[in-house]
């Protein structure tokens, strides 16, 4: 009996020690400052990279207006810049007396991040539907040899300036409409929480963030996957084709993983206070969460899509009207 008790106590002591260490880390102001200041510095670095790239693009093609590529880098600059400021003043943000203000400062950049990267989904959807619609209209033979040749030609024309042309008006309207609905719903939730701090409405707000992240995950999975497999079907191998295949595949994988992690963690935080992201005493959780869902994905995507547009005028590179 004594041996059983001693063995159980010895086996539980490492777990208790680890739990005690974890609680000490969470409650330590030094760990909190280290984690959140590290996040602030990382966000500031990514924001600076996006701004520098935006300036380089503008200097390269000053004759064009706000293209998709420029808007994407501008939004990256804004999102990461806002995050850097918020985490730079993390003590004031997390200790705001009115809880809804804290939720706005923490959730609004997440929605902007969604709008930034769903822009890539929008562009890929435009490419996919444009190629298929033109091919079907001309040939009306879904899998003929001539259809494949035409699709191949359309891909080379459309993808040579990948992520630099704006989508059609119809898809642009869908993009604006979806984002408008999301922001209106979120603002209504914030307004209600400002009037009546209700735990049920706060739960609904987190579930809504999960739904928004799932929409982004679904968009990247559907249109990133479709464009990737459309590129793989072409028989002719070339450096340009392989590069576009690499860009679409890697960006799709990175964004799917980051939005999947966001869905899981936010869903868990909605029902488990130990996984809450809106508190000051979860610095390590916040560090890994924001690193995996925003900082690393942004840095990797900016690196993958770092190529500058050509100086020559392209028919696929239009300013916003």
From TrEMBL:
It is found in: Vacuole membrane. The chain crosses the membrane at residues 36-57, 77-96, 103-125, 145-162, 174-195, 207-229, 250-271, 287-305. The keyword Mitochondrion does not apply. Its main location: membrane. One of its GO terms (cellular component) is plant-type vacuole membrane. It holds the Pfam family THH1_TOM1-3_dom. Keywords: Membrane, Transmembrane, Transmembrane helix. It is a multi-pass membrane protein. Residues 150-320 form the THH1/TOM1/TOM3 domain. InterPro entries: THH1/TOM1/TOM3, THH1/TOM1/TOM3_dom. Belongs to the plant tobamovirus multiplication TOM1 protein family. This is THH1/TOM1/TOM3 domain-containing protein.
């Amino acid at each position: 009996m004594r041996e059983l008790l001693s063995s159980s106590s010895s086996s539980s002591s490492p777990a208790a020690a680890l739990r005690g260490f974890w609680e000490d880390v969470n409650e330590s102001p030094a760990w909190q400052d280290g984690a959140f200041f590290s996040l602030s510095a990382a966000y500031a670095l990514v924001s600076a990279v996006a701004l520098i790239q935006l300036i380089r693009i503008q200097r390269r093609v000053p004759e064009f207006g706000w293209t998709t590529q420029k808007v994407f880098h501008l939004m990256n600059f804004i999102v990461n810049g806002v995050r850097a400021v918020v985490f730079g003043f993390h003590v004031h943000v997390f200790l705001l007396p009115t809880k809804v203000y804290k939720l706005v400062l923490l959730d609004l950049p997440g929605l902007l991040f969604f709008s930034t990267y769903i822009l890539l989904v929008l562009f890929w959807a435009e490419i996919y539907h444009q190629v298929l619609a033109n091919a079907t209209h001309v040939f009306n033979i879904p899998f003929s040899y001539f259809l494949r040749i035409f699709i191949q030609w359309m891909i080379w024309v459309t993808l040579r300036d990948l992520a630099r042309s704006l989508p059609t008006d119809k898809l642009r309207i869908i993009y604006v409409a979806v984002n408008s609905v999301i922001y209106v719903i979120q603002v209504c939730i914030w307004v209600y929480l400002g009037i009546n701090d209700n735990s049920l409405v706060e739960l609904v707000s987190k579930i809504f963030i999960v739904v928004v992240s799932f929409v982004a995950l679904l968009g990247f999975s559907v249109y990133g996957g479709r464009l990737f497999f459309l590129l793989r079907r072409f028989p002719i191998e070339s450096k340009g084709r392989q590069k576009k295949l690499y860009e679409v595949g890697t960006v799709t994988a990175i964004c799917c993983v980051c939005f999947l992690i966001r869905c899981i963690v936010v869903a868990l935080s909605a029902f488990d206070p130990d996984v809450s992201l809106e508190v000051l005493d979860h610095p390590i959780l916040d560090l890994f969460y924001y690193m995996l869902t925003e900082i690393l994905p942004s840095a990797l995507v900016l690196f993958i899509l770092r190529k500058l547009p050509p100086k020559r005028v392209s028919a696929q590179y239009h300013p916003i009207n």
